[in-house]
Amino acid sequence: MVILDGTIVNVALPSIQESLGFSPSNLGWVVNAYLIPFGGLLLLSGRFGDLFGRKRVFTTGLVVFTLASLLCGLAQNSAMLLVSRFIQGAGGAVTSSVTLAMVVTMFTEPKERAKAIGVYSFVQSAGGTLGLLLGGVLTQTISWHWIFFVNVPIGAVAVFMAQRNLRAEEGAGKGKSTDALGAVLITAALMLAVYTIVEAADYGFGSAHTLGFGLGTLVLLALFVVRQAKAADPLLPPRMFKFRNVSGALGTHTLMISGMFSFQFLAVLYMQKVLGFDQVQTGFGVVPVSLLIGLMSLFVAPRLIAKVGPRPVLLVALVLISGGLALLGQISADGAYLTDVFPATVPLGIGFGLAMPSLAGLAMSGATPQDSGLASGMFNTMQQVGASLGLAVLSTLAASHTSTLLGDGTGRADALTEGYQLAFRVGACFVLGALVVAATVLRNPPRPGAAPAPRPAATQPSETDTASA
Question: What is the CB neighbour count within 10 angstroms for residue 38?
Answer without folding.
Answer: 31
